[in-house]
Amino acid sequence: MASDKKYWKSVEELKAHSPLIEKLRNDEFVEEIPIDEFLGNKESLDNSSTTRRDFLKYVGFTTVAASVAACEGPVIKSIPYVVKPEQVVPGVADFYATTMADGFDFASILVKVREGRPIKIEPNKLAGGTTNARVQASVLSLYDNNRLKAPKSYDKAIEWHEVDAQILAKLNELKSQGKDIVFLTGTLASPSTNQLILKFKEKFGNVRHVIYDAVSESGALEAFEEMYGDRALPNYDFSKVETVVSFGADFLGDWQGGGFEADFAKTRVPKNGKMSRHIQFEANLSLTGANSDKRILAKPSEQAFALINLYNKLTGSSLPSKKTSVDVDVEKAVKQLKSTGNKSVVVCGINDKNLQLITLAINNFLKSEVIDTVATRNIRLGNDVEVAKLIADMNSGNVGALLMYQTNPVYSMPKSANFTEALKKVSVSVSFAMNDHETASISHFALATPHYLESWGDISVQNGTYSLIQPTINPLFNTSQFQDCLLRWIGSEETYYDYLKKYWESNILKGAAWSQTLHDGFITNQPNTVTALKNIDLNTVSQGVIKEFSAKGFELCLYTKTGMGDGQMANNPWLQEFPDPITRTSWDNYVTIGEADAKKLGLQNFNVSNGALNGSKVNLTVNKVVLKEVPVYIQPGQAVGTIGLALGYGRNKGMKEEMMIGLNAFSLYNNFKNYQEVTIEKTDGIHEFACVQLHHTMMGRDIIKETTLETFNDTSINPAETWNKTTKVSMDHKPVAASSVTLWDNHDTTIGHHFNLSIDLNACTGCGACVIACHAENNVPVVGKAEVRNSRDMHWLRIDRYYSSDMNDEIADEMEIGVLDKFNQMEVPSNNPEVAFQPVMCQHCNNAPCETVCPVAATTHGHQGQNQMTYNRCVGTRYCANNCPYKVRRFNWFKYKENDEFDYHMNDDLGRMVLNPDVVVRSRGVMEKCSMCIQKTQLSILQAKNEGRVVADGEFQTACSSACSSNAIVFGDVNDKTSQVVKLVEDQRAYHLLDAIGTKPNVVYQVKVRNTNES
Amino acid sequence: MRSVLKHNQLKRVITGLLLFLIFILKINAQDGDPSKGKELFNANCAACHQLDKRLVGPPLQNISEKRDQKWLIKWIKNSDALIKSGDKDAIAIFEEYNKIPMLAFPNFSDQDVIDILAYTDGGAAVGPDGKPIDEAYLNGKKVFQVNCAACHKLEKKLIGPPLGNISDKRSMPWLNSFIKDSQAMIKAGDKDAVAIYEEYQKVLMLPFPQLSEKDIEDVIHYTTVGDTEESVQLDAAMDNEDLKLYRKWIIRFVIALISLILIIVILSTKNVLLKFLAIGMIVLGLTYAAFNWLLQIGVDEGYQPIQPIAFSHKIHSGDNKIDCQYCHSSAKHSKTSEIPSVNVCMNCHKSISEYKGILYDGYDKAFYDGEIKKIYDAVGWDKTNAKYKENFVQKPIQWIRIHNLPDFAYFNHAQHVTAGKVECKTCHGPVEEMQEVSQFAPLTMGWCVDCHRTTEVSMANNDYYEEIHKALAKKLGTEKVTVAQMGGLECGKCHH
């Protein structure tokens, strides 16, 4: 039935003869379409003889022409050397021993060089070298496109000979005026450079050398100097430790220059029923605290008095002190220390001379064998007092020239503005810099220096041990080394290489061959210091502590992140994307605050719909300096009344915009103290984090299996029934191990090699060197903060971090808590949780769930145990990732190379030089994952075949296993019954991740054992 | 043919010669033997001397006209002593040639020196087989290939008549005038000329007035001697190619015929089933053709780009028998086989600045010399002074890559060459016969895999394989283990 109703579209229709209605009726479009705008002049179009048909012909022709032209393959050129260097064989990697030294990190390393390009850093195991994440990533900084590529003066390009002439004239002028010429450098620890500076002094008179560490260890240096008469840091041999008590010392991190984790890890793996015991008093949850057996929360001010109390208890003396809330634990610690006698050590991370004196006194009393006061370390030599004096001198106009090398004070000085002002009063400021950073950009001369991989040099980090730096690539840019400049300025004809060689031959080599030493990278001589113990009046020392530590409010603990360090490598995308081992957050620094304090201040963290983490922001005020809008991360295990904040972020000069991230915490680093009294004030705004781990607890599952030393040593129990339980299922009405039930035929892996990877959760500190090593070896792309937030990070190897919860099945049963409540509470980590780290990469399952679901057989199993991913076969269905129980597969959502949207190293020719030519760079739309470094295993096999021998144990390595300094990751062939990995796979601690699902992985984990024995 | 011998060979040659000389010396010959002289020259002198050019030492052509024979004997046996004795000429030479003392050859007998001098004085040269080089033959062959081969063959009719042993049929003067201007002869009414003209469809032969009488003589000489064995083989191969081509055309013809029949069937029949079947067959055929066409995309078998230098593998590897891995030395150590750097070229080309071998494809000596000069231009080698130019910016030679594997396929030469003991030519074909190298194999995955399936792993005398071989042999029940059985078909081995 038709309706009589009349519908109208607008009021206009109600009016009779509305012009608009008329127009609407006649014209298709209400407004005239501006054809002219996009087709150009209408007139000329009308006059054009091109008809529509012609147009179609042209379109057709061009389309066909383009497609026909595309059929032709590209012509690829192959350009050989003109004169090939003798040692270079294209396609074969060379390894050179050298030393990384940037004033913050020092490491003996081997550099893998392909066709003259360094592409990978390995630890120099001969020299006992270890690498951390930053050392591993330093190779990428060589190819940093933001490097200073040529010298410049007052922002104008300048030639080196002009630099020399101008500076030399200025230096001579200053010499005649009698003004000071000052070197301001980071810790160089270079004997030959020190001598060179002395020579410079001879030539120019009023020269002094001020050493400035961005992250200061002045307190420990001064304390050691006062007690032993030598400005150095004591060395520690952590492999001898039976008990270690740490007061805020992150000794598995960057404490006193770091590098102790390898030795310490040796004591962490239970051997003959024994392992070390580690007690940590701290405020921030540090990497070291996370690995401790017992972690006691204490503010820095409490740690200070707890340390004195410990001294008093231990020695029976009565230094003036205060009571603290942790005195009970101090008493227990004393007992523990006493029980292990001279195998005990106490370390302190608070940068305060008095506390460091007390720590030394404690170790003296213990007659600790761990601490070595003879073969001391020069890894940090900064002198805060001299730095302060220098700024005063600069302000008074006494400093004529300031030569800055390996330092960026405009960024890292606590009162950066003061320094900038003072710098203006210096008549000539010279910054030797790798990039146009904050200091270089305002210095009169910014002199481009080479990366350490392009330089010569020497380092003596430990008294008596010397190592060499040798170039592994021709200088990429128009750079000149600091030392070469000095040599030219003192009128020497020598190059620094000649100078270095001569210096070594007359002072260090003592008859050893130069070429052999260069080959090895290091030489060890007898330490040449004699230390005399002085008596210190500890009473006044304690008075000093009482005066210093009188904070009432919130205390701020400044720390350095495993990834970022002091911020020198902030333009390194690998390090920016490296998730912090504790917070699992990348691309940021933030305030860490405890749950209780956060509640009080109304601060919160929450997940948005796609799982990404957001957080509130606060303003921090320290000594009237305000740091605004600092994001807040609620951190389990943060001591009440304290907050943490990482240094090294907030750089904003000479780097890519994507990397200018975070806030500069150095502005709060008042007087170079890593503890500060702070006031917190909530501000508006929400910060978006790029956090890669959303769940913090294991929800009662045994993803990480743990036991105590006591249980572990109990021979009366069967591990398979108790602490290393295997899941049982019922078959034929009998309980059998879940992994023995399978639908599939087994792969025959008995012939040839069968690779297994063992990860010892006791030795693993979570440091993340393996993550970066994997990044470098396998051309893993960097995806940027936004994509990490979308959970599209590409790391093939991740280190999961789990917190313990206060709730578990037993407690729930006991308290009769319902299931939902139980699980809700299980999700919440404890206030002072036990922490465990678990590196997870592809488990290379022998019954791999991913293989069975791939519609195109792009992922298949090899007879060597590797689950192989064939990128060129993959069509990107992502079924495999969905079916992977370990969530280790990574999908290329985008093309990450040559894409301006991902403006990281793979977007420029220079950055791409770091790519490993043996591993393909994956394209968009394909899945990728850990390959168990098949390119490395294949190479080892090939070498053996070519040489007609069997592969020796230890020859097979993955990138992660060779980077692991604590030896937690061991790789090898289980068909070689003599190999180390066989012993580990058969160890009673060995277990497979999620063994209940019967995937039979080729990666085994070793049960974590905690030493909970209190004596 | 000249060749530069290596040092250890030099020793052998010298001792051999010494023994030989003991016999020779008994015959008190005063005249030198140029062919022996050449041998000695090539073995001992050629590293530093050429006949007509300055190398490390002075040119030696007709040296005996310049210097006294006795002086030369003294000089060659021990130049150093002669210089020290204060001989003026000796010192002058020493000074002139950058004070590089000449190696002493005390082993030479006087007769050896006389032989060498006989050679440098221009005695007849002999080929590597000991027979005298037939210069006329070589020149004739060259001229034939450049000028005649387009229309004539030796044994067969082409456009023109076969020319083998043509001198038996016609007299030299007749040939001479016919080659220079056949048209004139025909017009003049020469009977033979007109007969040929009639026989060969009245196609006129091009006139070759530029050929000298010597050239024509040489060509006729060449047609009389005929081709050596090698080139006959080459022709046979060419015939084979022709056969292939015929076969291809036959197949095409058959396909066209079938299609035609099918189309006729479709058009003419009213039987629906038949029509349907015919259309179905055409569709299937087209699909098959399209699929085959798609498969060849990116397969560049036969790819033969024009290289910046017309480097001939036939001359280097074929004629001069240089081992592949002398130049491609990293093939045994590395994943890449390495295109030799220019300094490797210069190892030989410091002393070989002109080409004296067989001329191919109508190229003349000047062409080959020009190609050699391109190396010198790249490295800045001063040929006349035999020195590198100072402050010369050397530039690499930009070769065009022939064998292009995609980035996602990993190939390792050492794996095949050293561990697998596969010969270069298995994949690269008869490179020693290629003037310019072309891609021999399709380099498709199917081609790789086929070989992996059938190739037996060479496991003998290799400790690596000992245990593995035992276990595999037991498992497979055969001693022979193929690459595939060793895991050579696993995706990840080549795609990682």
List keywords for this structure.
heterodimer, A: 1015 residues, alpha/beta, Dimethylsulfoxide Reductase, domain 2, Barwin-like endoglucanases, 7-stranded mixed beta sheet, 6-stranded mixed barrel, globular, B: 496 residues, mainly alpha, Cytochrome Bc1 Complex, Chain D, domain 2, two-stranded antiparallel ribbon, 24 helices, 53% helix
Highest CATH level, the class of the domain at 7-120 in chain B: Mainly Alpha
Question: How is the CATH topology of the domain at 706-895 and 922-1010 in chain A named?
Answer: Alpha-Beta Plaits
- Strand order, biggest sheet of chain A? 6-5-17-16-15-7-8
Calculate the terminal CA-CA distance of chain A, rounded to whole Å: 96 Å
CA-atom Rg of chain A in angstroms: 32 Å
- Roughly how much helix do the residues of chain B carry, as a percent range? 40-55%
DSSP summary, beta strand count of chain A: 43
The tally of beta strands of chain B, per DSSP, is 3
SSE map:
The complex is a heterodimer of chains A (1015) and B (496).
Chain A: H1 19-26, H2 35-39, H3 42-47, H4 52-71, E1 77-78, E2 94-101, E3 106-114, E4 117-123, H5 133-142, E5 152-153, E6 156-157, H6 160-177, E7 180-185, H7 191-204, E8 207-211, H8 218-228, E9 233-236, E10 243-247, H9 261-268, E11 277-282, H10 287-290, E12 294-297, H11 300-315, H12 327-340, E13 344-348, H13 353-366, E14 371-377, H14 384-395, E15 399-405, H15 409-412, H16 416-424, E16 428-433, E17 445-448, E18 457-462, E19 465-469, H17 482-489, H18 496-507, H19 514-520, E20 522-524, H20 538-548, E21 554-560, H21 573-577, E22 585-586, E23 591-593, H22 595-601, E24 605-607, E25 613-622, E26 625-634, E27 642-647, E28 675-688, E29 690-691, E30 706-708, H23 709-713, E31 728-731, E32 734-737, E33 755-760, H24 769-777, H25 785-789, E34 798-803, H26 809-815, H27 819-826, E35 835-840, H28 849-853, E36 859-861, E37 867-869, H29 879-883, E38 890-891, H30 909-912, E39 927-928, H31 934-947, H32 959-963, E40 969-973, H33 980-985, E41 990-991, E42 1003-1006, E43 1008-1010
Parallel strand pairs in A: 7-8, 7-15, 10-11, 10-13, 11-12, 15-16, 16-17, 21-27, 23-26, 30-43, 33-42
Antiparallel strand pairs in A: 2-3, 3-4, 5-6, 5-17, 9-14, 18-19, 19-20, 21-28, 22-29, 23-27, 24-25, 25-26, 25-28, 31-32, 33-40, 34-35, 36-37, 38-39, 41-42
Chain B: H1 7-26, H2 34-45, H3 63-66, H4 69-77, H5 79-84, H6 88-96, H7 110-120, H8 135-148, H9 166-169, H10 172-180, H11 182-188, H12 191-199, H13 213-225, H14 229-268, H15 272-295, H16 313-319, H17 324-327, H18 342-349, H19 365-379, E1 381-382, E2 387-388, E3 399-400, H20 413-419, H21 424-428, H22 445-454, H23 463-476, H24 491-494
Antiparallel strand pairs in B: 1-2
Helix pairs in contact in B: 2-7, 8-13, 10-11, 11-12, 14-15, 18-19
